[in-house]
Amino acid sequence: MPKDASGPPRSLLVLGGTSAIGLATARRLIARGARLVHLAGRPSPALEKAAGELTALGAEVRTVPFDALVPESHQASLGPVFAAGDVDLVLLAFGIAGDQARDESRPLDAVRVAQTNYTGAVGAGLLCGAALQEQGHGTLVVLSSAAGVRARRTDFIYGSSKAGLDAFAQGLGDALYGTGVRVMVVRPGTVLDPGTPRGDARLTTTPGQVAAAIELGLRRGSETVWVPGGLRLVMSAVRGLPRPLFRRLVV
Q1: Is residue 95, in this structure, part of any structural domain at all?
Q2: How far, in Å, CA of 131 to CA of 138, rounded?
């Protein structure tokens, strides 16, 4: 039976269990009443440490072996999570930035960025979307990026992968419309560590600020969330720049 989606999620699945944004979001949702957290990622001490930290906040935490680069394993990894009980929220938080200067001369490394950020997300996103639809409720939050709005010379490999992910997530949201399941696309600017100098506040953010924006977006029923909010206007202007001007102004 469909569940009332107006309240905070009680159970969540974080794809990318060591993601700084994913963990910051989990902490906020635990404070609001989430009691079961599935952390999906490659088995590692970092994943176990993250699980321990969330357990200390009062949640039951289960680690799930998951590798974005092996889509044929996703059903075996994630199927048991949904079989064990309803999942109110799925946060697709995995991804890699790569190294643009290096990856341009090492195509296989560039392909790995694309496979992680796009191909892996397509497989996991479709699987989770279908599982949420089968249970009749839930939200899929997809971490996209402002870099996907218009890829710059300095990050076009990463930016193009996020552009593909963003388009996929929007389409999946349209496909699931009316089923009781919704998709929320989150477009952060450059995500900095909390102690890093901020630079232009219109373009940069931190994991904690992204988590706060996700929580607010969930309460509002948003389909798209920009972090910071003013980034929406900035990127709207950037999107419309003629290419010759864009090349001169944007690095």
Answers
A1: yes
A2: 9
What is the CATH classification number for the domain harbouring 134? 3.40.50.720
Catalytic annotation, residues: 158
pLDDT in tens, the chain (251 residues): 344 455 789 999 999 999 999 999 999 999 999 999 999 999 999 999 999 999 999 999 999 999 999 999 999 999 999 999 999 999 999 999 999 999 999 999 999 999 999 999 999 999 999 999 999 999 999 999 999 998 888 999 999 999 999 999 999 999 999 999 999 999 999 998 765 555 566 688 999 999 999 999 999 999 999 999 888 888 888 888 787 887 787 65
Q: How far, rounded to the nearest angstrom, does the alpha carbon of residue 44 sit from its chain's CA centroid?
A: 20
Q: What is the pTM of this model?
A: 0.92
